[in-house]
Amino acid sequence: MNRLPIIPLFSRGTSDPSPVPKRSGLNSQSGFATIIAVFVMMLFSAMGMVLVSISAGQLEGARSNYREAQALYVADSGYERAKQLLAEDPSWTPGGGVLTETFTISGTTGSYDITVNTVGANIEVTIESSMLGA
Question: Which segments of the chain does DSSP mark as H helices, in order?
Answer without folding.
Answer: 24-88
